[in-house]
Design a protein that fits this description.
heterodimer, A: about 280 residues, alpha/beta, 8-stranded parallel beta barrel, two-stranded antiparallel sheet, about 40% helix, B: about 280 residues, alpha+beta, two-stranded antiparallel ribbon, about 10% strand
Chain lengths: ~280, ~280
Amino acid sequence: MEKPAPLGYGLGLRPVYYDEILASRPPIDWFEIISENYMLAGGRPLAMLDRIRADYPIVMHGVSMSLASTDPLNMDYLRQLKALAERVEPAWISDHVAWTGVHGVTLHDLLPIPYTRESLAHIVERIQRVQDFLKRRLVVENASTYVSFVDSEMSEHEFVREMAERADCLLLLDVNNVFVSSFNHGFDPVAFIDGVPAERVVQFHMAGHTDNETHRVDTHDQPVCDEVWALYEHARRRCGDVSAMIERDDNYPPFSELLDELQHMRDIDARIANERALSAA
Amino acid sequence: MKLADFQSLFQQSMLAGAGEADKPLLKKLRSSPRGATPETLLGVYQSGYRLRLADFVAQDHPGLRAVLGAETFETLIDDYIDQRPSRDPNARFFTTGLPDFMKDCPTWRDDARAVSMALFERAMVDAFDAADKTPLAVQALAEFSSNDWQRLAFDFDPSLALLELAAGTIAAYDAAISEEPPEKIDASAAGDGIEYAAVWRVDHESAYRQLEPDEYVALCEARAGHAFGDICQMTAFQQSGEIAPERLAQCLSSWFQEGLIIGLRVRGDDQSSNTPSSA
C-alpha cells in the first residue's frame, strides 16, 4: 500500500490563530485547513494561507463533498476544490463518510447513513469518481453519529473497511469520532480501531466533545478527554507512524494549550517507541 | 428503504424540525443503549442545523441585529432558514441571500432601515473575500499626458460596492460594532432620507466610507467606464453646475489613496484603447 509520507504532529488552521502562527512560527509539523473556508475569490483567508503554506505542509480537509448523498456529485464544488489543491499543493485531500443534503439543499452537517450494501456500493462508486477527477487518492474519515438505523446490515467499521478496500482510498481515523459514536451506539471502540485496515490509515484526528450523559456530541470545543487519549494510544500502537493532529473549532483556548495537547501526543508516542525498543532489545 | 428515500425523509425532518413529521424516521432508528430517546438523538441534528445557520447570519449581521433587536432578529432568521434553505456547499454563502429575501418577503420588505442594513452588511462580507487585485498609486497618472486626461477611464477594485442606503445606516452600524453596542438602535431617529456609501477592502479588511452625493454619482459613472471628462460634464449637469473639475480631481486623489483604482486606460473613439497616448 503506497501512502503519503507521515507529516508528524499538526493542528487545524483556524483564523483566530493566524497572527500568532505568523508571528511565532510555532514548532508544529503541519496544518490542516477546512477546504471550504478557502474556496473563495481572494482576501485575507487565502493571503494568510499562502504565507503559512510557505513554511508548513498543508492538508486539505473538506466537509461538503457529500460522498454518501444520492444527489449527483457537485462538479462545481469539485472543480473549486481541485483549483484550491493546485494552489495549495496539499499532502492529501480528505472528506467524510457522510452526506450533507439532497435535492440541491445543503444542511451543513455530516449526516449519517444506514450501513447497507446499497450505501456501500453507492459511496464506493462516488469515491472512485472523485479520485479519478482529482487524480489522487482520497482520504475518507469516519464521522461522529448520534443515530443508527434498523436497516443497517453491517457495523460501521465493517462498512469503512469494505469501502476503503473496494474504492482503494485512504483513511482518516478520527479517534474522537470513534469514541463518540461508540458511546452513542454501544459498540466497542477498540474493536472499531482493530477492524479498520491499518495500512490505509494516513491520519488521526483528535478533538474534544460534549458529554450530555445519555449521548455525546462532537463539538470540538474542549480539550481531548482521558478516554480518547487512551483510545489514541491504542490506535497509535495499531497503525504506527501516522500523521496526527488536534482539531479545535470553538471555545478557542490560548494557542499554547493546543501546543500542550500536541506535546501530550508526542509523549505518548515516545513512550510507545521506548517500550518497543526495550522489548526488541 | 432505498438510500434516496431515507435521505429525503431525513432531510425533511431536519428542515421541518421536531414534530409529527418525524414519526416515519423515528421508526427507523435503533434504540439508544444509554437511554436517550430517539427524539433527543434526532434533535441533535435538527437543532444543530438551525443553530449553525443562525450563527452564520448573526456573525455577518451585527448591525441588523441591533436595528431589529434580538427577538425580532431571531424571528427574521427563523423565517429565512424556513423559506430559503441553504443551497451552496460553502456555508459562507448562506447569508448572501438575506437582503433579497427581506426585500421579497411581505413581513420584512417595508422595514427600509433593516433592509438597508442587511444590504450594507452583505457588501461588507462580500468585500472581505472578493478577488485580489493590486491597487495603483496616484503616480500612475504620470504615465498619461494632460491631453489624455479627458478620455481617461478607470478600473476599480472588485471588492468595491456602491450603495444607496436609508439615512442613518452607517451610524447605526458604527454603534452596533462599537465596544459597547446598545441592545437596540433607535433607527427611527435617523430620518427618512438616503445616504450613500462605498464598501471595499483594504489590507485584507473590509472598509467603508460615507459618500457625498456628488462623489457617489462620480464613482458610479467612473465604474461604469465613463471617462474623466465625461464625468465632469455629467456630474456637473446633475448637480446644476456646482461640481468643478477640481472637486472631481479631489475625489480621484482619494480613490487612489484608498486603493480603489486598479487600472487606467485612455478611451478611444471605439472605447477600447487601454494605453496612454504618451507613456
